């Protein structure tokens, strides 16, 4: 596996996207997604990708698949995060922002990773 050197521009770009990732985390947290009932959150993610010109689809297990550049390379990299909140509630979970931190059931497992993955995929598409 090749090591990737992160340039200064990439780091600046990631810092610049922080407000967008926080907004995306909040939007995702507002969509109930208990295990085996992630269809609304999956649809949100699919539509988010589609709005950025990235065709995506939802499989039978509510995974959102967004293949990128598979025809150009022999090696494949999979970036993934789970979309369910592992809480059985169908109501939106309460989200509190306090002192620069977000508090919500499921926000750190794995909603934040989903938002980061989405933005990383869009960044890769836009920047090759």
Strand order of the largest sheet: 1-2
Distance between the termini: 19 Å
Query: Which structural class matches the secondary elements?
Result: mainly alpha
The count of β-strands is: 4
In percent, how much strand structure appears in the residues? 5-15%
How helical, in percent, are the residues?
40-55%
- Characterize the quaternary organization of these chains: single chain
Please mark out the parts with pLDDT under 50 across 5 or more consecutive residues, or reply none: none
Note the overall shape: globular
User: How would you state the average pLDDT, rounded?
Assistant: 87
Which value, in Å, is the CA radius of gyration? 15 Å
How do the helices and strands follow one another from N- to C-terminus?
Answer: HHHEEEEH
What can you see in these coordinates?
Strands 1-2 form a two-stranded antiparallel sheet. The chain has a two-stranded antiparallel sheet with strand order 3-4. It has 128 residues and is mainly α. The chain contains 4 helices and 4 strands; from the N terminus they run H-H-H-E-E-E-E-H. The protein is globular, with a radius of gyration of 15 Å. The mean pLDDT is 87.
In short:
The chain is built from four helices and four strands, in the order αααββββα. The chain is mostly helical and 128 residues long. The chain starts with 7 loop residues before the first helix and ends with a helix.
Key features?
mainly alpha; two-stranded antiparallel ribbon; globular
Topology readout:
Elements: H1 8-16, H2 18-29, H3 39-51, E1 57-58, E2 64-65, E3 96-98, E4 101-103, H4 107-127
Antiparallel strand pairs: 1-2, 3-4
Helix pairs in contact: 2-4
């Amino acid at each position: 596996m090749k090591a990737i050197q992160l340039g200064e521009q990439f780091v600046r770009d990631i810092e610049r996207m922080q407000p967008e990732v926080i907004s995306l985390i909040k939007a995702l947290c507002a969509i109930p997604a208990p295990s085996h009932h992630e269809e609304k959150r999956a649809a949100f993610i699919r539509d988010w990708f589609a709005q950025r010109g990235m065709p995506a689809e939802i499989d039978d297990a509510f995974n959102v698949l967004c293949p990128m550049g598979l025809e150009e390379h022999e090696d494949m990299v999979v970036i993934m995060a789970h979309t369910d909140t592992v809480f059985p509630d169908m109501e939106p979970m309460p989200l509190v922002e306090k002192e620069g931190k977000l508090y919500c059931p499921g926000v750190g497992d794995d909603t934040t990773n989903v938002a980061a993955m989405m933005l990383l995929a869009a960044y890769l598409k836009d920047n090759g």
